[in-house]
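DEPOSITED CHAIN:
***
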Amino acid sequence: MGRFNGKSVIVTGSSNGIGAATALQFAKEGAQVTITGRKVENLEKLHGEMVKSGTPASNIHIVVGDITNVDVQKKIIEETVSKFGKLDILVNNAGAAFGDDKYQGTSSPDSMNLLEKNLDLNLKSVMNITNIAKPHLIATKGEVVNISSIASLNFGALWHSYYCIAKAALDQLTRAQALELIAQEVRVNSVKYESNL
């Protein structure tokens, strides 16, 4: 019997990398998993790997779309709850670093657009999808795991200033959400992976 038997889990940005590995591990441990991303072929490949590892196809749900789109965020939550009956764990993994191709950092003439792009994906989408999921997580006394990065720490990452800013803000959002939701017995944590920037 797996550690997550009977648990309903969403892993955003699960079409490759950390997200795919996380979704696969949850499935191996018995969870019902919604996998999300923009590339349907990657999600279908992951679906195949999950089934091959012993996960029943009925325990896997695919939602294709851009996580920065509010309608996609709603679809992920609504379809998960409709298919699995509840939501226990939300893993906010979707993220990326956007910079300019001339390595100008914050001096780039496109700096405000690049900052906004990084904030939209790495911060705003996390805050919004968590708010949409909140009533369902309160109902199950669930958990939120925000995937951050060591790029949020005080040494930063050269030429990736916007990403560092967004991930540092995500760390503060995680602390705020943890304080706000603990009274409803919903845990909010983050994991910092070692960036390969």
Observations:
- The mean pLDDT is 92.
